[in-house]
Amino acid sequence: MEETGPARNDSQSIDGHVKADRKKRGRKVSRDVEMDIDYLHKAVPQLSKVFRITDKIGEGTFSSVYLGEAQLMDGKREKFALKHLIPTSHPVRIAAELQCLTVAGGRENVMGVTYCFRKDDHVVIVMPYMKHQPFVDILGSLSFEEVRLYIYHLLKALRHIHQFGIIHRDIKPTNFLYNRQEKTFALVDFGLAQGTVDTQIELLKELSGLCRTPRAVFGERNLNSCTPAPAKSADTKIELVKPSKTEDPATRAFVSVIRHPLSTRTPASSQKQPRTPAVNLGLTCNCYMTDRVCNVCMSRKQQVAPRAGTPGFRAPEVLTKCPNQGTAIDIWSAGVILLSLLTGRYPFFKANDDLIALAQIMTIRGSRETTQAAKEFGKAVMCSCELPRQDLRTLCETLRGRSSPDDEAMPLHPPNIDIANPQEPPTEEPGGRNAEENVPEPQDEGGWDQVPEEAYDLLDRLLDLNPATRITAQQALHHPLFTGF
Ligand code: ADP
Ligand code: MG
Ligand code: ZN
User: Fold this and answer.
1) Cα(58) to centroid of ligand 1, in Å?
2) Annotated catalytic, 170?
């Protein structure tokens, strides 16, 4: 992170520059955006010497992204994306994001980085600007061929970063840019990335060192802020769903993940002795495999496990806070994207809470299957009613509107799950787009009348509930769906 030459602190010349810019801005930007651009110019004055900042193109909780135009030596103008990170971001977190971009970026469908500006605690990452279409805008008009291409290029990006031991942790359409005209793709946003045990990204190692600080809850993006997470979140008693006796089991499903002593064991040992809980902890527990939570379990500390990302894209092992999470979590998210592409529905799983998200997964992949997979990775998951596994072709064709139109109401959203305490605010997408669900018109064209079995087979393997057997990006690229690529 280097600063450019002497900063121009003379605010008058900056203001002058900004005003001139505003006149030159062809498109009308809102007053709010103008104020944000002015703020950025003041926060990082060096930017004014290089860029004409014309618009805001992205806004999240932890950054704002602007469009900047620079005049090159040869007189040509070139567009850049300027990502202004919130000033409270942890320095190691910022440096790790940059290192992912510099080491792995710039090829294989992974966004590169051009430069980085810093003034005090303000950091701006400069990247080549990539024109792209919002996923929701194009979802309804994609041909099957384009879907095949899209998922292939996403897997290519994942193979590449996984080779470096980078786990992205936030794979979703807004972080995978697609330029439809030029058929180009770019994976962005390493703001939540973590390293595998053998990662080649030095700063991701450092990051996991920081992550090991004893904190009861490993909150989302906790390294983005220097201020510790409020203690309240560590003590909140959640994840435990106690069905009351009056509920009708046919209409209400209950899902709970018990933070059981067994859950900290390795999958192998938990498989061998699934019904001998707590013996070596000297604690008496009598709730294992029942639908209650005993006091001993109520007072247990939450397991420390990373839980980053957006609920609807989180893998089962993330939702259940399994401590061993690897690159397979990105593959699951890619599976959720493919599910959206094949059904034409986005977002597919809409949940602000991990257990609701898990229940929604069960409605597609089956409750018994989910429980079994969880057991294999060492988690006791319970669901009060049985949800059958869905046939993926039938599901996708029905939702897309190709077959049995009266069946429209698929149990996408499971029946009334009671959750004691939803713990996260809704994740907002730039432009607040994920508020709307996209229901496309039934299509006869675009290859949707002959989706090959391979597409559903790949979907099935990406959405493997068990991370140990889930397909890798490398394997997926050799899947028969991509023969001829
Ligand atoms: P955040 O951490 O706030 O989600 P991202 O890096 O995902 O930040 O960027 C937010 C949005 O900004 C993206 O969804 C995308 O629309 C836009 N964006 C980011 N980088 C670029 C880029 N290099 N070119 C074009 N748009 C970009
Ligand atoms: Mg993002
Ligand atoms: Zn118990």
Assistant:
1) 6
2) yes
Write the pLDDT tens digit of every residue in 346-405: 999 999 889 999 999 999 999 999 999 999 999 999 888 899 999 999 999 999 987 654
Domains belonging to the chain, first-starting first, are: 11-128 (3.30.200.20), 135-210+304-482 (1.10.510.10)
Nearest Cα to 382, choosing from 239, 224, 278?
Answer: 239
How far is ligand 3, taken at its centre, from the CA of residue 476, in Å? 40
Decide: residue 265, CB within 10 A, 0-12 exposed, 13-18 middle, 19+ buried.
middle
Provide the mean pLDDT of the chain.
Answer: 79
Ligand 1 first shell, C-beta below 6 A: 57-58, 60, 62-63, 65, 81, 83, 111, 127, 129-130, 174-175, 177, 188-189, 191, 430
Q: What separation in Å is there between the alpha carbon of 247 and the centre of ligand 3?
A: 22
Q: Please compute the mean of the pLDDT values over residues 103-117 and round it to a whole number.
A: 98
Atom 11 of ligand 1 has which residue's CA nearest to it? 58
Write b or e for each residue in 216-237: b if 16 or more Cβ atoms lie within 10 A of its Cβ, otherwise e: ebbbbbbbbeeeebeeebeeee
Identify whether the C-beta of residue 325 lies closer than 8 Å to the C-beta of residue 317.
yes
Looking from the CA of residue 62, the nearest atom of ligand 1 is 3
